[in-house]
Amino acid sequence: MLAILQRQVPVVITFHNGETLSAKANLMSSVASLFAKHVIYVAQHIYDLCYLKPKTNYTILPCGVNLEQCMVVDQQQARQELGFSADKKYVLFGGAFANLRKNYPLLQQAIKLLNRNDIEVFGNKGLDRATITKLIAPAICLLPPK
Questions:
Q1: What distances in angstroms separate CA 96 from CA 29, 61, 101, 104, 143, one per listed residue?
Q2: Cα-based distances in Å from 36 to 118, 136, 141
Q3: CA-based Rg of the chain, rounded to a whole angstrom?
Q4: What string of DSSP letters covers 44-99?
Q5: Which residues on neighbouring strands pair with residue 93, listed in sequence order?
Q6: What number is the average pLDDT over the span 14-36?
Q7: Are 11 and 37 in contact (CB under 8 A)?
Q8: What share of the chain is helix, strand, coil (3-state, %, to 5)?
Q9: What are 48-63's pLDDT values in tens digits?
Q10: Which of 12, 30, 54, 74 shows the greatest Cβ crowding within 10 Å of its Cβ?
Q11: pLDDT at 68 over 80
Q12: Are strands 139-143 and 119-122 parallel, antiparallel or unpaired?
């Protein structure tokens, strides 16, 4: 919001979702987007959630993946290299467990309903992309935060 108050330098705003989580943040961000030179939304639903939105000068550009860094790796081989058990079901959670917006408690409830003790969940808090890329292969599923 502060950046758009000056008119000397063009401003590009990127919306990642936090801008839409509260009514106050949504309103301030939406107004700022109307004065920006260009606005980037990292997902269609973020654009849709904004109260006010530019009709032009915006792009929906998902956060990308570097395909040269993400290679298909055999699951059993990856488990051996990382010291993971061949008998467990690993779930990669796409967020920090403590971040309430990511809704880790919902995942815990779902796992409890399965009534299994062979499921292990790991998150990505504090991990770099290279480490997360290595953790994808041994997982049976990847859960985006929501």
A1: 25, 23, 9, 8, 12
A2: 50, 37, 38
A3: 20
A4: HHHHHH-SS--SSSEEE-PPP--TTT-----HHHHHHHHT--SSSEEEEESS-TT-
A5: 143
A6: 91
A7: yes
A8: 40, 15, 45
A9: 999 999 999 999 988 7
A10: 30
A11: no
A12: unpaired
Instruction: Give the whole-angstrom CA distance, residue 94 versus residue 137.
Output: 14
53, exposed or middle or buried, with CB in 10 Å at 0-12, 13-18, 19+? middle
Flag whether the pTM goes above 0.70.
no
Residue-wise pLDDT tens digits, 74-127: 889 989 999 999 999 999 998 888 888 788 999 999 999 999 999 999 888 888
Residue type for position 146: K
Angle (deg, nearest 10), helices 75-82 and 129-136: 120
Q: What angle do CA 64, 4, 28 make, to 5 degrees?
A: 80
